[in-house]
Amino acid sequence: WRVLIANSEAHPPIIVDVGANVGSHASYPAALGARVYAIEPHPYHARRLMHMAHLNEWDMTVFAGAAHDSDGQGVIHLLEGGHLVMRNVVEVEEEGLAIARTYDVGLVRVDTLVRERRKVLLLKLDTDGHELQA
Fold this sequence. Notes:
The protein has helices spanning 2-6, 27-31, 43-56, 89-94, 110-113, and strands spanning 14-18, 35-39, 60-63, 65-67, 72-79, 84-85, 99-108, 120-125. It is of the alpha/beta class. It has a domain at 2-72 and 109-125: Vaccinia Virus protein VP39 (Rossmann fold, 3-Layer(aba) Sandwich). Strands 3-2-1-8 form a four-stranded parallel sheet. Strands 4-7-5-6 form a four-stranded mixed sheet. Residues 17-133 form the Methyltransferase FkbM domain.
């Protein structure tokens, strides 16, 4: 991270973390001075990441929702075992998966969130099968 950020053309460099979870990949570049945009649909993880960014005074924007190909509202399912999926209930049930909880989430296009017209240094995408929509 240090070398990547130090050699960035833009200062501060922009990092986008889609599927940020609790910030394992977003926190270190933020601590080094990067501007980080983190997108996380799980409400608990998003709140925790927001709190951590606030406490450390990082230049981090956390969107508590999911990256998608359009802005709006959606539904995400927390399966037994803790895995999140963004599929309709019929598909989930046909695969024999058990839904533990369902959340309404905001949907955002990455370019809606990152309004800056500068080059993004790094885009990390971890959406568990939802990559094309993100």
